[in-house]
Structure formats: C-alpha cells, structure tokens
Amino acid sequence: MPRGPPLTDLEKGQILALHHQLMSLRDISKELGRSVGAVQRFLKNPSRPARSRAHVTGQKLTVRGEKAMIRRATTGNYSARDIKQDLNLPVGVRRIQQILSATPHLKYRK
Known about the structure:
Order of helices and strands: HHHHHH
Structural class: mainly alpha
Largest sheet: none
CATH architecture of the domain at 63-102: Orthogonal Bundle
Helix content: 40-55%
CATH superfamily of the domain at 63-102: Winged helix-like DNA-binding domain superfamily/Winged helix DNA-binding domain
Radius of gyration: 25 Å
Mean pLDDT: 87
CATH class of the domain at 63-102: Mainly Alpha
C-alpha cells in the first residue's frame, strides 16, 4: 500500500497535544485523518526525522542497452552473467534472463 504524505509540524503538534489529553491512538487518527500506524510511529519516537521517499528514476535499463543485450545473446553462446559483464549493465542477472526469455524471436536456454 502506498505511503501517505509526511506528517506536517502542525499535525505532529496536534498528535502530541491529543496524546497528552489521554486520547486513544484510534481517536487521534480519526481526528486528523491519518492512519493509526502513522500516529503510533510518531508517538514511539517523536524526535525521529520524517522518512524520505525513495527516488524512483524509472527503468535502470535503457532501450539501447536492452537492444544491445538481445543482440549479444543472438550472436553467440553467452550466459546472462557473461552478457552482464561484457556490456556492464546496471541490472541483475535474473532480470537479464527475464528479458531474454520474454523476447519472442529468441529462444533462451540456460
């Protein structure tokens, strides 16, 4: 399930104030419209900095790299590990195997 936006300073203050009023986690989460887990994680360690989202840049392998990999596989008897080392690809051996097996005109064998 996707992560929601980070807690704002105002929400953090409200969570602390409601918690000091002995309000339950569930009631605090309903009041603020946040999940119980988010409230609970904050109360467990209020001084902890907010988690940053993972920086997703898209695919690691470019179309050009994928074509080069398929060309290399069709020209000879190379293993996925050999292809990875020769072309210096930023993906794992298993991903290379998956791409080669999904290529319709290429019969990939171990």
